[in-house]
């Protein structure tokens, strides 16, 4: 037995130093003749079944081929030098969560250094790096499983986040390369989606330019013919709409190219064409729905939920004049904002829609004093006799002047469609209410739970309580 042990030890010392794949050790039962004192045959049986490569070259080639197929760089090694805070924890053999994240970040950056521009480490490479990491630093091994499962998850997540940022950066660069724009491109909000354009109304390029030239001449007259302007804007609607939608231009760019859009009648006609309204005036429909149905319902609902609106409505409860009807409409809109809109650091969300100015304040001065906001706003100026005058501002410039509050509110809402603008996040739900319930237009996108509950209750009041009208 001692002799056999020595032969096996000597045989083990003669094994190749490189890792090899050992074949199964098959030892057949000894016959009686071989089970005597001569143990030489036993050592022969131990030697013969195991097959080794004749040299290390074949193994090395197969290993290289396997790494290439899995996307693992051949010369990849785990770094030996790290940042000072990481090295301190490695020497102490104790990693804090912050240092662990820093180590993963540096390791992934090291992995990216093995590729060219646009290279992304494969999952096999991430797994290879995680396994090599715990092999180099055994104290980092997980308590269960493969030992590197948590490291693999962190490495894969880090690679994903890097690729996500790279894709976003590449998209921004491609948008900039398409051509200069005075305003960054906007994403299309759920509330500003519009029906597809009707190609039947497209005129040829020569006719389109001729209409635009005629329109420009008409606008230069001391007293432009409104009927002619509306007709020419109708004839050029489809190509103009394609310019707005496909070009994703700013409101300033659109107004420079089509200055007729600064007239209230033109904006309202444009809105009717966008939503494809075929019968009746959109303004008349909005005034009737808003004034007779939704203003009483909103004010009644707000009296139970908003003390500020309840006090304002109570002051005008017994008055029934035309001016007071507009005041009640303003209170109803204020209630809508109070109930549905988000607040920014306790700032009243209504300032994102209506801003009041004294009689002495000039429009151009007020415009300069306004905080810079791209979202459309209503500016209310009080003249000497107390009558309000309404202006609509878009992207820090005056769009138009309106005669009454209902017309102002509808034009303010329409500017989001006409100029392809987003609803501001602080009045998004309030604008959705006007779109879905007052104008009865389809809405898309997710609604907040506050919107769904409030809109349901107000709609119930408007449709069932006959005493409100």
Walk me through what this model shows:
The protein is elongated. It has helices at residues 2-13, 40-47, 57-69, 84-92, 97-112, 123-136, 149-177, 205-219, 226-235, 237-247, 251-257, 264-274, 282-305, 307-315, 322-340, 363-369, 405-418, 428-438, 449-464; strands spanning 354-357, 377-382, 388-393, 398-402. The relative contact order is 0.07. The chain contains 19 helices and four strands. It is mostly helical and 469 residues long. Strands 1-2-3-4 form a four-stranded mixed sheet. A hairpin with a 4-residue loop joins strand 3 (388-393) and strand 4 (398-402). The protein is 54% helix and 4% strand. Mean pLDDT is 75; it is low at 16-39, 45-56, 180-191 and 315-322.
Q: Care to give the gist of this entry?
A:
Helices cover 54% and strands 4% of the residues. The chain has 469 residues and is mainly α.
Q: End-to-end span in angstroms? A: 110 Å
Q: Structural class, please?
A: mainly alpha
Mean pLDDT: 75
Q: Catalogue the unreliable spans.
A: 16-39, 45-56, 180-191, 315-322
Helix content: 40-55%
Taken in chain order, the helices and strands follow as HHHHHHHHHHHHHHHEHEEEHHH
Radius of gyration: 38 Å
Number of strands: 4
**Count of runs of 4 or more consecutive helical residues:** 19
Strand coverage percent: under 5%
Strand arrangement in the largest pleated sheet: 1-2-3-4
Overall morphology: elongated
What summary fits the major beta sheet? 4 strands, mixed
